[in-house]
Design brief:
heterodimer; A: about 450 residues; alpha+beta; 2 domains; four-stranded antiparallel sheet; two-stranded antiparallel sheet; 18 helices; 6 strands; B: about 375 residues; mainly alpha; A middle domain of Talin 1; two-stranded antiparallel ribbon
């Protein structure tokens, strides 16, 4: 035993030394300029998104027209403000985002923008988008991280800054991690048979892009779909690492720009490509904005000598906790039985993108349990066409709609009906299959976070 | 040093990507047998020029004929002129109902269909207006509610199952021919609305038909072919959905518990044209899907569906045939069938539902027009 002690000690010491070095690197100051640019771009993109959404009538369509909303489980009390209230919310969001962009009370502005943006998108599950979720997370990070130390009006107030445009390196790492995770898990999600072996759903979508300049005719060939599926998966899986490495960064960013410009043209995905093109600039050297902007705007360069270690390690520990949570949350679907592309249990908030082409038709029937008399329910009487489309393929929304129907009957003084659904869905070009058990009273089913027993087996 | 390496890396990557692209293109080109998938741009262009614009053209022509027939009825009420006006109404009505299958664009944007052309009439209000003494003119008609004009309002004036033709003619002769004046003014208003839709679809330089035809190729309305195809397919689904949920389920009382027939909710109740209305919409769906109208034929949407899913194409064709057969099997008029012969109506309802299901699942899935990447991952 006496001889064993020295042999086990070096690895422990080595690990401890490695951790110490890592901590020192994490705490070492880096130029805050790129994070200042990141903050500016994030705020500016949110402003642009608000203006675009407003101008296109999106606020009216999402909050004023619908009479019913699909709440997230546990957030049933989150509802849009009545009347023109959501316009006020969006106006305040634009102001907060503009303030964030300018670096004026950066953290407070980010906190307000985060709260308003998240609130607006938490009102109705139908409106879930991966990049909305990403924007919420980044605004949340901006609310707690010191992103106002460069390129910020905050710098003009000596009381709110130490005068040095620097941040601990872990702050930069955390932001890069959050963005890189989107790509990486996007790639992980593509490592499945439909994407790799059947080039689905890209084959379907590319067929609809014969009008693409020059390449249109080629895109309609199956071979193009296969090539793009594999290249897309490889891109997603590798690009965060390639952006992180100095030697490959520029080329990787060129790929990012090309990839998103092409997907923007192919799929009409709104702000998402431009968000990613802008925000991945944070992977470049922390001082990159100084090449283009005067020092008086950015702030003084970071001091060459490392700072003394701060007295508290809590911020770093919290950052690690945040990262761990966001590594684990997208993996939760693996805890649930069934095919995630079919059941969609754990599909949201997992960065699965471009994996599903679902077309569904849902017919719901309300039956008086006492008399057995039944009636057909027209979804359009409750929901907007967009909500109907979303509901028709997503089991949790079908259940929620069944409850809406039952609640509505009770409100009208009728007995609470059994509500069943006959839903057929075509997944990634397959023959339509029944999605839910048509004999189950969905209005009586509780919300579940996975393993939904009334969802029928996947046709895959 | 690092800058030099960076540039070299960029060149390397660019070369590799270029080589990869060229290689892939060459390999792909070598493998092609010369048969390309149908050009969706041409499908949309043909749909506009072969089906939609001519259909609105026919609706406009028939609306003019209806206006002329009501003028003749106004000027000389008789069994012949009343019969001619009714026949003109039926023809114009059938022509218009075909266009329900492509209810997007001007007819929707201008709020003409739901608002003026094709709203269920309030019989009492129309009869009050016909019996009033206030002067009638085109401006007054234009200010009327949608439930007093359009096809519905005119139907009330021309048809009455509770009165025989002689009684009807007397009504047109009474009170200085006011009923005839009202009918002709409503027909004039209707013709103007139909012409407005036709004009929006067909009038150069930036007609809606042209915008659809140029989807993804310079269209200001549709930045991609996909958006154009989406609009077309969603309109087809919506047309089938309205047939099921509104035109059949409501009169059958299937939306009520317990089910109680509601014959007053059939479409075109006084003319008993309800079954013809249903058939016209199904015809419209088929015209759009097959890209064919009369003897004219273009590159059909069906080819794009069949290219991706022959099964979906076959199924929709057979579902459409079955639906039409089922609707024809309804013993007319629909208002009595929903009460006395419910089973054929229920079967027609089920058959049309299969059409809608096939459109919403197999056809939309094959064309990629469903909720997909564009909605769940972008804005």
């Amino acid at each position: 035993m006496a001889a064993a002690a020295p042999s086990s000690s070096p690895p422990l010491e080595g690990a401890a030394a490695w951790a110490t070095r890592l901590e020192a690197r994490a705490l070492a100051p880096v130029d805050a300029a790129s994070l200042g640019a990141f903050r500016f771009l994030l705020g500016a993109l949110v402003v642009a998104a608000v203006v675009r959404h407003w101008a296109k009538g999106g606020i009216h369509d999402a909050f004023v027209v619908p009479t019913h909303f699909f709440a997230y489980e546990g957030l049933e009390l989150v509802r849009p403000l009545p009347g023109e209230g959501m316009y006020v919310v969006y106006a305040a969001l634009a102001l907060a985002a503009a303030s964030l962009a300018l670096g004026f009370f950066s953290r407070t502005s980010a906190a307000i923008a985060c709260a308003l943006f998240t609130y607006a998108h938490a009102c109705d599950k139908s409106n879930y988008l991966n990049h909305y979720y990403l924007v919420s997370l980044l605004l949340g990070l901006a609310a707690v991280l010191p992103l106002g130390r460069a390129l910020a009006l905050d710098r003009r107030s000596a009381s709110r800054t130490d005068g040095e445009a620097s941040v601990p390196a872990w702050v930069l790492w955390l932001v890069r991690f959050q963005i890189g995770l989107v790509y990486f898990y996007g790639g992980v999600g593509k490592l499945e048979t439909d994407w790799l072996l059947h080039a689905m759903p890209l084959r379907i979508w590319l067929l609809a892009n014969g009008d693409f300049p020059l390449l249109g005719p080629v895109l309609r060939w199956p071979e193009a779909a296969y090539a793009m599926s594999w290249l897309g998966a490889a891109f997603d899986l590798s690009v965060a690492f390639l952006l992180g490495a100095r030697r490959t960064r520029l080329a990787a960013y060129a790929c990012v720009v090309s990839f998103h410009v092409v997907t923007a043209r192919l799929f009409q995905i709104g702000m998402f490509p431009w968000v990613m093109i802008a925000l991945t600039l944070v992977f470049f050297d922390p001082s990159w904005p100084r090449r283009f902007l005067p020092a008086r705007l950015v702030g003084p360069r970071v001091a060459p000598a490392p700072r003394a270690a701060p007295s508290s390690r809590w911020p770093l520990a919290l950052a690690l906790g945040w990262a761990l949570v966001h590594v684990l949350v997208p993996l939760r679907s693996h805890l649930y039985p069934g095919d995630v592309l079919w059941t969609e249990d754990g599909y949201r908030f997992s960065w699965r993108v471009m994996l599903i082409e679902k077309a569904g038709s849902a017919e719901l029937t309300a039956t008086d349990p006492a008399t057995g008399a039944s009636r057909e329910v027209r979804a359009r009487a409750f929901l907007t066409p967009f909500q109907v489309k979303m509901m028709s393929t997503q089991p949790d929304m079908i259940r929620a709609f069944a409850r809406m129907i039952a609640d509505d009957a009770v409100r009208r003084g009728e007995p609470r009906p059994r509500v069943t659904a006959d839903v057929v869905v075509a997944l990634n070009g397959r023959s339509p299959a029944r999605l839910v058990d048509p004999t189950v009273d969905l209005a009586a089913e509780p919300a579940r976070f996975g393993g939904t027993p009334w969802v029928l087996p996947s046709p895959r | 040093m690092s800058r030099k390496i960076g540039r070299r890396d960029v060149l390397l990557y660019a070369s590799a990507l270029g080589a990869l692209g060229l290689g892939a293109s060459a390999a792909v080109a070598c493998r092609r047998d010369g048969v390309d998938p149908p050009d969706r741009g041409k499908i949309l262009a043909d749909l506009s020029t072969v089906v939609i614009v001519p259909a609105y053209g026919e609706a406009s022509t028939d609306a003019k004929a209806l206006e002329a027939a009501t003028v003749a009825l106004r000027d000389a009420p008789s069994a012949e002129s009343l019969g001619a006006a009714r026949a003109a109404w039926r023809k114009a009505r059938a022509s218009w109902k075909v266009t329900d299958a492509f209810l997007f664009g001007p007819a929707d944007d201008l709020a003409l269909t739901g608002g003026v052309i094709d709203t269920a009439a309030d019989i009492a209000k129309v009869e009050v207006l016909a019996g009033a003494t206030t002067p009638l003119d085109a401006q007054q008609i234009a200010r009327l509610g949608a439930n007093q004009r359009g096809f519905g309002g005119l139907e009330v004036l021309l048809f009455d199952p509770a009165a025989d033709d002689a009684q009807q003619i007397v009504r047109f002769q009474a009170e200085g021919g006011r009923r005839g004046v009202l009918a002709s003014l409503v027909a004039e208003d209707l013709r103007g609305k139909v012409d407005a839709v036709l004009g929006a679809w067909a009038s150069p330089p930036s007609s809606y038909g042209d915008e659809l035809a140029r989807a993804g190729r310079g269209s200001a309305l549709y930045s991609s072919e996909r958006q154009g195809v989406d609009a077309v397919v969603n309109a087809l689904i919506n047309a089938a959905e309205v047939l099921i949920a509104v035109r059949l389920a409501k009169p059958l009382g299937l939306d009520k518990s317990p089910s109680v027939a509601a014959p007053e909710l059939v479409e075109s109740p006084r003319s008993d044209a309800s079954v013809d209305d249903l058939l016209a919409v199904l015809d419209g769906i088929e015209m759009v899907y097959l890209g064919r109208r009369g003897d004219a034929a273009g590159l059909p949407l069906a080819d794009a569906v069949a290219e991706r899913s022959p099964r979906a194409d076959t199924r929709l064709r057979s579902d459409l045939t079955a639906a039409r057969d089922a609707v024809r099997a309804i013993p007319a008029p629909l208002r009595t069938a929903v009460v006395e012969s419910r089973e054929p109506v229920i079967q027609a309802h089920a058959a049309v539902r299969e059409v809608k299901r096939c459109l919403a699942t197999e056809v939309a899935g094959a064309l990629g027009t469903s909720v997909g990447f564009n909605v769940t991952d972008g804005d």
